[in-house]
Amino acid sequence: MTRHTLAAQPTHSVWDRALPPRLRIAPGDTVGVQCVDSSGAQVLPGMTAEQYLGIDRTRFHALTGPIWVEGAEPGDVLQIDVLDTRHHGWGWSSVIEGLGFLKDRFREPYLFHWQLDGKSTQSLAPAIVPVRPFPGVMGVARAEHGQFRTRPPGPFGGNLDVRELCAGSRLYLPVFNPGALFSCGDGHAAQGDGEVCINGIECPLDLTLRFHLHKRQPLTGPLVEASEAAAPDSSADAWVVVESGPDLAAAARAATSRMIDLLAARWGFTEVHAYILCSVAMRLRLSQVVNEPVYTVSAAIAKQILPPRTLFPVS
Fold it and tell me: Which of 83, 92, 183, 221 is least enclosed, having the fewest CB within 10 Å?
């Protein structure tokens, strides 16, 4: 088993099975993969929102790869073990007009810079946000011929933004092309379910990945084998906002908006800071889908993130 290193540059921002591989490996090999942040190294610490609006958005989701896995053929399954993830001590989040889950409420451009202190960040005080890095994008080349933007995920993986893909976890992907042609990037130091403002804590990331190949195995889409033991993420004690209605997306937006209101009213966050906190730390879940035609969505922030509060004191 061989250990390889793959530098970030040159990156690519499309899925294209015609891209030449930058590295060839054998099953069982380990690769140290360097990834720039999702902007393609255009966002830097201290950048202003005005400067951010001028960057080249065609370079977003700057991916490292492709990696050719010897012996991989259509119909196989590629296993990617995430052995280690390391951030570079800084990150960013943004709000952009016309984007995000609450784009009708938040229209003013905003750029927030994070200082990452090991396993947490206090940049958005009074919150203390746990840091648990993972790549937002991991995928193999699509089956179709041509160039495709990386924003939509699919059976090939891609822009999954699954926060469980941290160190200690595994991702299984169906192979659609010879060599699989694996790429990754879009590092997040932390992310809430939904990534509601359109960013987690975006950051450059160094990954250690190990690859295995399972021949002629049926798999129709990505499968994650998560490990909370390797990367604990306790949110059992939480503030949970609950919304119900016939439209799941509307209920999720209402729960997110109410959580922002709660954070602003009870913990003193500005509304935009509350929105960003939700994007990097909130758990957004389907609580029930069986009481049709009414569904229930819950939005939760772990109590460990916020200073203690008694919202309704008993007199």
Answer: 221
